[in-house]
């Protein structure tokens, strides 16, 4: 365990949670987020997987089904926490509105928050957004601006729009309020399985794993948190190795939800650097295999980002033998075109 964590724990125990000292996300903040959003989000099931448990000797393996979450993704948790806080702090936010940026799932979440809480939110999305997410956004009356081929460029454009129009920017990950909302998944995991040993989380910008890890490490430092990224887009992994946020161009990946760069000075870098125990990288073929596995064995659809954490487990099972492991299935928003290709490819292998 890092010295950073022990020092953070000491500050928490002493009641000093000043964000001026560090980008700190506390258990208390995440508990407050749960109370704030509980009427807007779904408590998703922690499903036992007999198939994975049997394959991984003497183990019990569970899937946290955020693919069954409203809007088909965990992102709704962070979006609702942030928009609720904006409404608490600014009586005119329903008139002024806000702006955000996303590869799709955060856009869906912000649109849902907009529709339910009455705060207009313009969302910048990359031009290569998946067809499934784009279609659903249009159906939900999203206010969209398409910009660039990478989420980092859409984020930069959205921040510029925020500054020019003097309205709040809702980051998909670079915000402790958003990460606190995502951290409510950690609360549910710990309540359902308090003796969990490992949690595998897909990583893009780091808001999901940052929130989950901050909560789990706060209640039990012995829980191991694994960050999982596709080899084709592993910016956070490379940044942690380098000791600072770097730019690395992303390749084509099934995991479009985790693809792209990380904003400079993102609060999630410190969360990942200090709370994530291990990193696992996943090949595209194993992401596809994981998606097919969920369809054939659990009869559930997952998107590429969820296939990253599941694929990471399936290709590294030996190190989880004899333990209780939770795999985060972060979303279900995958296009039918991609799904058909994966099914065809996997079934051809069987034949």
TrEMBL record:
GO terms for molecular function: L-serine ammonia-lyase activity; pyridoxal phosphate binding; threonine deaminase activity. NCBIfam families: PRK06815.1. It catalyses: L-serine = pyruvate + NH4(+). It is an enzyme of class 4 (lyase). PROSITE patterns: DEHYDRATASE_SER_THR. It comes from the Eukaryota. Its cofactor is pyridoxal 5'-phosphate. Keywords: Lyase, Pyridoxal phosphate. Residues 38-331 form the Tryptophan synthase beta chain-like PALP domain. It holds the Pfam family PALP. This is L-serine ammonia-lyase. GO terms for biological process: isoleucine biosynthetic process; L-serine catabolic process; L-threonine catabolic process.
